[in-house]
C-alpha cells in the first residue's frame, strides 16, 4: 500500500515535470513542440485583446501522414531526427473547379490570392494554441476544423480558417486538416477496394487520430475534441457522427449535413465519373486493371486535374463503405444509433444565393425547375406554387430561386436533422442572417454578383465565427456579432452546451418546438430566439425528407 502511494506520487511529479518542460518550449519566443515523430518549430502571432495583445503559437504544415500515394489510404509518417520547421502552410491538395465556364468565378470566391501550391503531397495539419502556461490537469478544449468545397476543392491555408482568435480569446486549441478531394480523394473505381474509395474521409480520421496522439504537447485535451465544419465539412462532420467514429466528443455542422442530404442513397456500382476520367486521359485501352494502372501510374497530377476541370467537368461522388460513410444515416439517426454527443447545426438564410445567381439569375421558376428536376412535373408545379415569381425573367428572380436552393439543400435538411437528433442527443440549431461589406464574395473582373443578391450567402458565416475578416474595415456591429458567435462555439467546445446568456433553447424544448437562435436578426449584430417558419413541410410532402434510408 505504502509503495503504491509512493509510485503514484512519483508519477504525478514526473507528469508535472514533463508538462513544465513542454510549457517552457511553448513559451519560448520561437515555440517548439516534441510530438510522436520528432520536434517541430512553430511561430508566434498576436491578437488584439480587451486590454493588450494576446500571443498565439502557430504550428503550420505539420505532416500528419506520410507523403500521399495516389489512390491509397494515408500511412504513418516516419520519425525525423532534426527539428522540422512548421512556420508556413503545407501544399494544398489537388483542386478541381468544374465546370470550366464557372471556374474563374468559383476560384475567386473560394480561393485566396495568391493561390496555394497544389500537390498530391498534401497531408498536412495546422495547430493554433494559446501561448500561455497550461495546467496538465485542465488542458484546453480542442476544435478540429474540416473545410468545405463540394468535395472538389478546399485547403486549410485560406485566411478565413485562421484559428488564432479562437486560441487567443477562447483558450481553445484549433486544429485544421488538409484532406484529399475530387478523383484524388474519392477514386470511385471498380479497381479500388470499397473500403479505400473514400480516401478524403480516411484522411480526416487519420488526422483525428493524430490529435489523440499529439495534442497534449500543445496543451490540448484529447478527451474534449469538437469537430466542426462547413458545407462539405458539415457533411463530413455528420458522416463521423452517423458512423459512430471515434476520437471526438461534440460536433458543429454549418450549412451541411449527411443524414437528410437531398441527393439520394449511395450507388457503389456507379463508375460513370471514373469511366469519363479514363476516357479523358486516353487510358481506355486494355482491361479494367490496365486502365486503372494507366491513370494511377502513367498520368501526371496536372493531367488528372485538367481532365476533371474540362468542359462541364467530371464530378466524383462517394462510396457507402459502412465505415466512413453509412448507407442508412437517416434510419440510424431516427433509431438513436448514431454517436451520442451534443450537436450544434444551422444554415444561412441565403445559402442558395450563390448557386441560383451563377446559373439561373435571368430565368423564371419553370426554367429553374426544368433544369433541376427535369421530367417531374408534380414537384415542378409544387415549387412554382410555393415560390411564385410574378414577372418571369429578370435578375430579381435570383432572390426567390435562391430561396428554393436554400430550403432544398441546406435549411430543410438541417431542420429535419435537428428534430430527429434532439430525441437522442442534446441538439441546438441556429440561423445566420448577417451581412457585412468585408465578407462579400470576391467576384472576378468581368463577372457580376450584385451585393443585394448575395445576402447571408453560403460560407459567409465562417469569418464571423473565426473573427478572420479584414479587421481595419470591420463595422462595430460585425465585431460584436463575431465575439458572440466565436464565444458560443468556443464555450460549446469546453462545456458541450451554449453559454447560458444566449438563452438558446435545445431543439424541441422551446415554445412551439421550432425555436432556434438567429444570429444577425437585424442583418447586423442582433441575436434573438425566433420560430423557424419555413417551407419544409412542402419539401417533406414531396418526399424529399426520405431520400436516404
Automatic annotation (TrEMBL):
<keyword id="KW-0378">Hydrolase</keyword>
<feature type="signal peptide">
    <location>
        <begin position="1"/>
        <end position="20"/>
    </location>
</feature>
<dbReference type="InterPro" id="IPR019826">
    <property type="entry name" value="Carboxylesterase_B_AS"/>
</dbReference>
<comment type="similarity">
    <text>Belongs to the type-B carboxylesterase/lipase family.</text>
</comment>
<dbReference type="InterPro" id="IPR050654">
    <property type="entry name" value="AChE-related_enzymes"/>
</dbReference>
<keyword id="KW-0732">Signal</keyword>
<dbReference type="GO" id="GO:0052689">
    <property type="term" value="F:carboxylic ester hydrolase activity"/>
</dbReference>
<dbReference type="InterPro" id="IPR029058">
    <property type="entry name" value="AB_hydrolase_fold"/>
</dbReference>
<dbReference type="Pfam" id="PF00135">
    <property type="entry name" value="COesterase"/>
</dbReference>
<feature type="domain" description="Carboxylesterase type B">
    <location>
        <begin position="31"/>
        <end position="524"/>
    </location>
</feature>
<dbReference type="InterPro" id="IPR002018">
    <property type="entry name" value="CarbesteraseB"/>
</dbReference>
<dbReference type="InterPro" id="IPR019819">
    <property type="entry name" value="Carboxylesterase_B_CS"/>
</dbReference>
<protein>
    <recommendedName>
        <fullName>Carboxylic ester hydrolase</fullName>
        <ecNumber>3.1.1.-</ecNumber>
    </recommendedName>
</protein>
Amino acid at each position: 500500500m505504502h509503495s503504491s502511494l509512493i509510485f503514484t506520487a512519483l508519477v504525478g511529479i514526473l507528469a508535472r515535470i514533463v508538462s513544465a518542460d513542454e510549457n517552457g518550449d511553448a513559451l519560448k519566443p520561437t515555440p517548439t513542440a516534441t510530438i510522436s515523430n520528432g520536434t517541430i518549430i512553430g511561430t508566434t502571432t498576436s491578437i488584439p485583446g480587451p486590454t493588450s495583445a494576446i500571443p498565439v503559437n502557430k504550428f503550420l504544415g505539420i505532416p500528419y501522414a506520410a507523403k500521399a500515394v495516389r489512390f491509397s489510404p494515408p500511412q504513418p509518417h516516419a520519425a525525423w531526427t532534426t527539428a522540422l520547421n512548421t512556420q508556413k502552410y503545407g501544399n494544398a491538395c489537388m483542386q478541381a473547379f468544374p465546370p470550366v465556364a464557372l471556374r474563374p468565378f468559383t476560384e475567386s470566391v473560394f480561393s485566396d490570392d495568391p493561390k496555394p501550391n497544389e500537390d498530391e503531397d498534401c497531408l498536412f495539419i495546422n495547430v493554433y494554441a494559446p501561448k500561455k502556461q497550461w495546467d496538465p490537469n485542465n488542458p484546453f478544449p480542442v476544435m478540429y476544423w474540416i473545410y468545405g468545397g463540394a468535395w472538389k476543392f478546399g485547403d486549410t491555408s485560406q485566411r478565413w480558417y485562421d484559428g488564432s482568435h479562437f486560441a487567443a480569446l477562447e483558450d481553445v486549441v484549433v486544429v485544421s486538416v488538409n484532406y484529399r478531394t475530387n478523383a484524388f480523394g474519392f477514386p470511385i473505381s471498380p479497381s479500388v477496394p470499397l473500403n479505400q474509395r473514400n480516401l478524403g474521409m480516411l484522411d480526416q480520421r487519420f488526422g483525428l487520430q493524430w490529435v489523440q496522439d499529439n495534442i497534449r504537447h500543445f496543451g490540448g485535451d484529447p478527451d474534449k475534441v469538437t469537430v466542426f465544419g462547413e458545407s462539405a465539412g458539415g457533411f463530413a462532420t455528420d458522416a463521423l457522427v452517423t458512423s459512430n467514429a471515434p476520437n471526438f466528443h461534440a460536433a458543429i455542422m454549418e450549412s451541411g449535413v449527411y443524414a437528410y442530404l437531398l441527393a439520394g442513397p449511395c450507388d457503389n456500382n456507379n463508375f460513370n465519373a471514373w469511366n469519363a476520367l479514363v476516357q479523358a486521359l486516353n487510358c481506355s485501352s486494355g482491361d479494367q486493371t490496365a486502365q486503372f494502372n494507366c491513370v494511377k501510374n502513367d498520368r501526371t497530377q496536372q493531367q488528372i486535374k485538367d481532365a476533371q476541370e474540362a468542359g462541364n467537368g467530371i464530378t466524383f461522388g462517394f462510396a457507402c463503405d459502412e465505415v466512413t460513410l453509412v448507407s442508412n444515416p437517416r434510419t440510424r439517426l431516427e433509431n438513436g444509433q448514431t454517436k451520442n454527443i451534443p450537436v450544434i447545426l444551422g444554415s444561412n438564410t441565403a445559402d442558395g444565393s450563390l448557386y441560383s445567381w451563377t446559373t439561373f439569375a435571368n430565368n423564371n421558376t419553370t426554367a429553374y425547375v426544368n433544369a433541376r428536376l427535369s421530367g417531374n412535373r408534380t414537384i415542378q408545379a409544387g415549387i412554382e406554387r410555393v415560390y411564385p415569381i410574378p414577372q418571369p425573367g429578370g435578375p430579381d428572380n435570383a432572390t426567390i430561386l435562391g430561396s428554393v436552393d436554400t430550403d432544398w439543400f441546406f435549411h430543410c435538411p438541417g431542420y429535419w436533422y435537428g428534430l430527429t437528433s434532439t430525441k437522442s442527443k442534446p441538439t441546438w440549431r441556429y440561423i445566420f442572417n448577417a451581412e457585412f461589406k468585408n465578407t462579400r464574395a470576391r467576384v472576378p473582373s468581368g463577372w457580376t454578383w450584385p451585393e443585394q443578391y448575395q445576402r447571408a450567402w453560403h460560407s459567409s458565416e465562417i469569418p464571423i465565427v473565426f473573427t478572420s475578416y479584414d479587421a481595419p474595415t470591420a463595422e462595430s456591429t460585425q465585431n460584436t456579432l463575431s465575439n458572440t458567435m466565436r464565444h458560443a462555439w468556443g464555450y460549446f467546445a469546453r462545456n458541450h452546451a451554449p453559454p447560458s446568456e444566449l438563452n438558446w433553447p435545445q431543439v424541441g424544448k422551446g415554445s412551439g418546438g421550432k425555436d432556434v437562435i438567429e444570429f444577425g436578426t437585424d442583418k447586423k449584430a442582433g441575436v434573438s430566439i425566433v420560430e423557424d417558419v419555413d417551407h419544409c413541410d412542402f419539401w417533406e410532402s414531396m418526399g424529399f425528407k426520405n431520400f436516404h434510408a
